[in-house]
Amino acid sequence: MNNLAKLFSRLSLALAVTCVSVYTVDAQSNRKLVRTGNKFFDRENYRAALPYYEQVLANDPNNAEALYFAGISYMTFDKEKAAEYINKAQSVKPNVDRDIEYWLGRINHINYRFDDAIKHYQAYIPNIRKRDDWRREEVAMLIQQSRNAQKEVANPKDIFVKNLGGVVNTEYSEHSPVISSDDNYLLFTSRSAGNNQSGAKASDGEYFEDIYETRRIQGDEWEQPRSIAGNLKSSGHDASIQLFDNDTKMLLYRSVNNGDIMYAERQADGSWGDAKSIGSNINTADFESDAFITPDNQRLYFSTSHYSEDGDLDIYVSQRQRNGEWGKPRSVGAAINTKFDDDSPYMAADGSLYFASRGHNTMGGYDIFVAKYDSVAKRFARPENLGYPVNTPDDDTYYRLSPDGSYAYLSSYRIGGYGEKDIYTINYIRAARVTGRVYATNDSLAIPGLELVFNGQQADKRPISYRDVTKQEDGLYDLRILSGRTYQVEITKDGQVLTTESFEMPMVLNDTTTVEQNFYIDFGDSTRVSPGAPALAGKDAIATMEFKNIYYDTDKYDLRAESIRELDAVAAFMKANPNVNVSIEGHTDSRASEQYNMTLGENRANAAFDYLVQQGISARRLVTVSYGERRPVATNNSASNMQLNRRTEFKIIQRQDTQQEVPVN
Q1: What mean pLDDT is predicted for residues 126-152?
Q2: SUPFAM superfamilies per the record (predicted)?
C-alpha cells in the first residue's frame, strides 16, 4: 500500500471512529433526556416532561420512546398531536412498550375512532399479566365505553354546544361555571397564569386553581375576567361551586384537609369575605369535592370519598337543622352512586338531580347524567345519560342550568377548544316559525294553491317533514319547523313537482323567532339548467352551469341525505358531459385552529370526491382543495352564518381535449 493510500485509510478509520463517538454521545444524551422527562412523567407533570421529549425528537425524530411518552403527555391538552405521536411510536417500534395497545385504544377513543379503539383494547388483553386482573377489568370497561360512545354519537340529540369563547377560556383548564340569578354575573375557576405572578405551581406542573369573575356585556359577550383572590386566595387550589342566598354567599372548594367545602359572604364593597368551613358533618379528613344547596336552603348535596371503601367519590345529602347547622349526611342511594366517582351534584327546579359520573353507561371519562325523583317511592329513578353532544368520549363535568332553565353551562375537553377543559353553553334547538309566499319570476303576484313540503332530518338522521299550502286569499304559507338544519323544499301544483329548493333554517334557541322565506318559480327561463340534465350544447352553456353547495354539521364531514341528492346530480351531469372536470373545494367555519380547519376542509372535499368516484366518475376528472376557514361566505358571528361556511363547493373545469381524459393538476 502506498503512502497516499495509507493516508486515506487512516483518515477513513478516524472518520468512522469519530462518527461512532458522536453517535454514542448523541444516543447517551437522548437517553438522559428521556430519563429526565420520565421523572416528571411519573409525577403526572406532563407539561414539564414534554420539553425533554421534544428535545430528543429534535435530534432524533424517530425516537420511539420519546414519541411514546410525549404522546401520552399530550393527551391532557392536545388530542390530535397525542394521536400523531403515539401512532408514529408504534410504526417506528411496534413493541416500544408493553402498554402501547392500551394507549392506542385510549387515544383512538377520545378521537372518536371507536372501532379502532376496541381493536387496540382487544389486542392489549393478552399482554395483561395475571397479577394485574384490575387492568383486565378496566379494559373490559373501556371497551364497553367505546360501544356506548359509538351508540350515542350515532344518535345525537338536537342540542347546540357553543364554546364560551376566548375571553373566558384559555389554553389552560377552565371549569366550575357559576351563574348569578340575573344571568349576568359569572364565576368560574381557571388554572391559567392569571393571578399566579409568583409562578407557583401544583405538583402536576400546572398553576393552582383560582376563582375569576366576569360580567355579561350583551348576548355572548363577556368582560375581561378578574381574579377575586383577595380574602379567598390560598396557597393551594380554590374553586367556585355555587352562589346562594340571593347571590350574597358563595360555596367554594379549597384544597385544605385533603379538600373541603367552604363558604364566603359578599361584603358591602362587593368583595368576598374570608372562606369558612361549611361544617364538620360535611367536611372530613378525606376528599370533599363539590356541593349544591337547594334554593330553599334546606338540603345540601355534596360529593365525598369519606364513606367509600375504595376511595371513590359518592354523593350524599344533608338536611339543615333548626340551629342552622348541617345534619348527618346520608347517601342518595345505590341508583346514583357507583363504585366509580360520582361527583358534581346539581338539583334542578323540578327536583331532578344532575351529576357527573365515571360509572353507569358513560361514553368515557366523566359523563353528565340526570335522575328524576320519584316522590311516591321517595327515591331517585335510574339515571339517564344526557347523550351526545352534551357528553363526549372525554371528561364532561360541572353541568349547571341557567336561572330560567333555558340553557346550561358545562365544563368539557373537546376537539376545537382553546386547550384542556373549556366552559361551554348547552342549548336545546327549538322549532321556529317560517312564513312567506311563492312568486313567479316574471310576475309580482303570489301564487295560491301550491303545496310546500319541507323535508329534513333530526340530529339522529331520522327524517322529518312539514307541509302547508299557500292560501287562496294572500298566497301565504305558515309553518313551525325545527331550526338549525337544511331542508329540501318541494313545491308542487296538483301533484306535479314544480321545483325543489334548498333552504337553510338558522339555529333558533327561543320560541318566538319568525323567519321570512319567499320562493320564486321560473316557468319559462330556459337558460337555467338543472344538474343531471342531458348533455349541454356548447362551452358557453357549460361555463354558466352552477352546482349547489353541500353542507355539514359542526366538526363533521359526513354526507347528509340532501348532500347525496346533490352529489347524484353532479355525477349525472358529469356523465352527460364527458368534457367537464370538477374542482371540489372544502370550507369550514372559524371555531377551531387554522391547521385543524384545513384538515377538516380537506376531509369534506374528500368525502364528496370518494362518493363521486363510487358513482363511476373517474378520479382523473376530479380535483380537491381545502380552504379551511379562509374563504367564508358570511361572518362567523352566528350559528346560521357558521352553517353557511361549513360547505363544499363545486367548480367546473372545462377540458380542452374532449377525446381523452386528462389529469387535472
Answers
A1: 92
A2: DPP6 N-terminal domain-like, OmpA-like, TPR-like
